Design the sequence.
């Protein structure tokens, strides 16, 4: 039995050493694309429907990342993990729900939501995608993903996303 464990460790090390160098790049492009689509979904003018659309895109992104990394995918498990991971960035996820609810307020609420919801949706999707890339790159699966291990990583990704938005020149500049 002990020999099997050491053999499994060697096989895991070999698998990580021979991992496709383009896989992480492909996964990052996928996350960028889904973050963009999540931003577009944030523009849906119907309250709650936008949040459901973003959640669906995040589950689809995780399914596709699982395919890239040859990780077994479970829709129910992925929903739970995304919810738990999103819960670790409470201000953003609360902001998404609150912004979606603003769409109930005629004109002013809808206008405010149009500017805020896409950014929050895209940023959360980006951070979640990057966390799963890091986890899958280290040989992890959906079964051994622990959202609390990635809270700080998700916060740093969210801050990076927000700072990138602040450093872009204003269109009038």
Sequence:
């Amino acid at each position: 039995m002990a020999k099997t464990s050491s053999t499994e460790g060697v096989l895991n090390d070999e698998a990580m050493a021979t991992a496709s160098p383009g896989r992480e790049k492909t996964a990052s492009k996928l996350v960028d694309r889904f973050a963009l689509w999540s931003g577009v979904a944030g523009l849906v003018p119907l309250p709650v429907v936008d949040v459901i659309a973003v959640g669906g895109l995040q589950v689809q992104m995780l399914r596709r990342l699982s395919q890239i990394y040859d990780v077994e995918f479970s829709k129910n498990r992925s929903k739970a993990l995304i919810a738990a991971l999103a819960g670790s960035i409470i201000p953003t996820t609360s902001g998404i729900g609150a912004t979606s609810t603003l769409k109930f307020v005629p004109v002013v609420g809808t206008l405010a939501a149009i500017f805020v919801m896409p950014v929050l949706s895209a940023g959360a999707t980006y951070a979640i995608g990057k966390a799963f890339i890091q986890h899958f790159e280290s040989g992890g699966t959906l079964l051994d993903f622990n959202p609390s291990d990635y809270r700080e990583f998700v916060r740093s990704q969210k801050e990076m996303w927000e700072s990138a938005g602040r450093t872009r020149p204003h269109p009038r500049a």
Notes: Residues 108-137 form the longest helix (30 residues). The two ends are 66 Å apart (CA to CA). Residues 1-18, 90-94 have pLDDT under 50 and may be disordered. The chain is about 75% helix and 0% strand.
